[in-house]
Amino acid sequence: MEGKTIYKEETTVDFKKPKMYKVILLNDDYTTMDFVVEILITVFHKSAADATRIMLDVHQKGKGVVGVYTYDIARTKIAQVEKLANEREFPLAAVMEPE
Ligand code: TYC
Question: Which of 90, 98, 96 is nearest to 29 (CA)?
C-alpha cells in the first residue's frame, strides 16, 4: 500500500470492579421504630418484613449494615436519611465504610 502507513491500535479496557461501600444504620434512643422501618422501605427498598427485621437488629446491636453500594449511591442514601430524619426531628443517622 504505497504512501500509506497502517497503525495497529490497542485499546485497554478497565474491567476493575468499582469500590463498594457499606451503609451502616446507627441506633439511637429517640427515633421511633416505625420511622426506621419507613426509611428502610423507602430509601433502601426493603420489604416490610426485611425492614422490621433489620430495624430490630440495629435496635439490639447498636448498628447494622443496610446495604452495599458504590460511593455516590451510598452518599446519596445517607443524605436522604439525614434529610428525612431532620424533617421529623429524629436523630437517626447512617454512616458508610469501605467494604
Ligand atoms: N432504639 C429506637 C427505639 O427504641 C429504635 C431504633 C432502631 C432507632 C434502629 C434507630 O437505627 C435505629 N425507639
Answer: 90
C-alpha count within 13 angstroms, C-beta hemisphere, residue 58: 26
**Residues 56, 57, 63, 67, CA torsion sign:** negative
pTM: 0.86
For 1-99, where are the alpha helices, taking DSSP H only?
Answer: 33-42, 48-61, 71-87
66 close to ligand 1 (CB < 6 Angstrom):
no
Quickly state the pLDDT bin for 2 (edges 50, 70, 90).
low
C-alpha cell at 74: 451510598
**What atom in ligand 1 is closest to the CA of residue 92?**
10
Q: For 31-67, what is each residue's pLDDT tens digit?
A: 999 999 999 999 999 999 999 999 999 999 999 999 9
